[in-house]
Design brief:
290 residues, Thiol Ester Dehydrase, Chain A, eleven-stranded antiparallel sheet, 5 helices, 34% strand, globular
Length: 290
């Protein structure tokens, strides 16, 4: 069984290109996940499964741009794996406009690994028999290859960004919400590109879209006045795409890691294109530091 959530779109969700911003999609997934787990969780303590979980990993694949042309978009969610102390969910963001392949327009596909969590003791816990029964009703098992943990970033060749956590970023448990990590990595990525172009004249910034984002959550980020460190580095430049790896740290402690694949596109058609050769050469140069 799959759960379908009607997710309302907001005007503020759009980026400069008129598309729903890549970060906002993760907020949509969170809404769909909470709605699914509240609807299907065992009574009477539905919040234990709906809200008493933490995200371990997100894998998000962006398929097509979503414009603000409708009141809502549909999100289908289901469970693909149940383990002793974690479960994996899959999502598809779509609408019913037909296409030749599936009879729907798919904007995003994603998966999330979650673990039940006792926030009072800051420790994960096992899935209860009642929760397992509820999750099994939504289970469509798939053979999933275990993801390789994201690699450390070479800080001496990375760009440094000082991350200040806002009070509004934290949830009721005092942790930074999982969606905000995507926003933090986006901020650091924008600063990285700005630094690349800082001393270059006459070179326009190409139009890019995010194609894939993978995030590993390792240690909770907490609200505090002191900034955290984000290290970002371009690790691959292809003909029409590039890959940025980043990590959020508290000193030597790694809190989260991300890998983002970005595609260069023609602004009007949205088709993938090769960037200006001068810009590509700039990307291939050693990453700026600090």
């Amino acid at each position: 069984m799959r759960h379908v959530y009607e997710c309302p779109l907001r005007w503020a969700d759009l980026d400069l290109q008129g598309h729903v911003n890549n970060v906002v999609y993760v907020d949509y997934l969170q809404e769909a996940r909470v709605d699914m787990l509240r609807t299907h969780a065992p009574e009477p303590r539905t919040e234990d499964l709906a809200e008493g979980v933490v995200v371990v990993r997100h894998e998000v694949s962006y398929r097509a741009p979503l414009h603000y042309l409708r009141a809502s978009v549909k999100i289908e969610s289901w469970v693909t794996e149940i383990r002793a102390a974690s479960f994996t969910m899959a999502y598809e963001v779509f609408d019913d406009a037909p296409d030749e392949e599936s009879g729907r327009t798919v904007y995003l596909r994603a998966s999330t690994v979650l673990t039940p969590y006792v926030f009072a003791t800051e420790r994960p816990r096992r899935i209860s028999p009642e929760e397992r029964e509820a999750l099994t009703r939504l289970l469509e098992p798939v053979e999933r290859v275990r993801p390789v943990p994201l690699a450390p970033v070479e800080r001496e060749r990375a760009n440094h960004y000082r991350l200040h956590v806002r009070f509004s970023d934290v949830d009721v448990y005092g942790h930074v919400n999982n969606v905000k990590y995507f926003e933090y990595f986006q901020e650091a990525r924008i600063r990285l590109h700005a630094r690349l172009l800082r001393d270059v004249e006459g070179l326009a910034h190409p139009t890019m879209v995010v194609a894939q984002t993978d995030v590993d959550y390792r240690v909770p980020i907490m609200f505090r006045p002191e900034p955290y460190d984000v290290w970002s580095r371009i690790v691959r430049v292809g003909e029409r795409s590039m890959t940025v790896e980043a990590e959020i740290c508290d000193g030597d402690v790694v809190l989260s890691r991300a890998r983002v694949v970005m595609v260069f596109v023609e602004p009007v058609t949205g088709r993938a294109v090769a960037p200006d050769p001068a810009y590509r050469e700039l990307l291939l140069s050693p990453s700026p530091t600090r």
